[in-house]
Write a structure and sequence with these properties.
With about 170 residues, this protein is mostly helical. It is about 80% helix and about 0% strand.
């Protein structure tokens, strides 16, 4: 046995993807196909995909039997092997980030509201330094009212007013 033949065969097998890797790649394409199933026809036509893929997605949306839907999802994954998925993934990522921005802004406002109610003067000073156009008198009044309502176990109307006040300040 020639050692050169052994090294060449070993080196060649390292270059070919494993069956497991191929399966992971196919599963990833099916996952992208799942995301495409959530899009409307108008959104699908905005992405550069073949009409055959759009038709397969539309058919999958109309299926109700579990096994038929599973086979159709696999077929969508199969069709996606032959196309460039980079424009699709970039569109889906952009769409996801557009949805994420308002949610992140909402969480940011909630964070400030909670800090102002729990941390007191240190959070208030930091908020005023971050947002200098703040009407501090009104903000202090809203914080006092919200804390009073929490202590008395009343409905949280002032807490909601504080949130709305912070929302207008932060959006500016």
């Amino acid at each position: 046995m020639n050692t050169d033949d052994y090294d060449d065969a070993d080196f060649a097998s390292e270059r070919a993807p494993s069956k497991s890797q191929l399966k992971r790649d196919m599963t990833a394409l099916q996952d992208i196909g799942e995301q495409l199933l959530k899009l409307s026809r108008k959104q699908l036509t905005a992405i550069p995909v073949p009409e055959e893929l759009i038709a397969a997605i539309e058919l999958a949306k109309s299926l109700h039997q579990r096994e038929a839907l599973r086979r159709q999802r696999q077929y969508i994954g199969r069709l996606m092997r032959d196309i460039d998925v980079i424009p699709i993934t970039s569109y889906l990522n952009e769409r996801h980030s557009q949805h994420k921005k308002p949610v992140d802004a909402f969480h940011h406002i909630e964070h400030w509201r909670d800090r102002l109610l729990t941390e007191g003067a240190t959070a208030l000073t930091e908020f005023i330094n971050t947002y200098p156009s703040t009407d501090t008198q009104q903000l202090n009044q809203l914080i006092r009212n919200a804390l009073r309502e929490q202590q008395q176990g009343k409905p949280l109307g002032s807490t909601k007013l504080l949130f709305k006040f912070l929302q207008t300040l932060i959006k500016e």
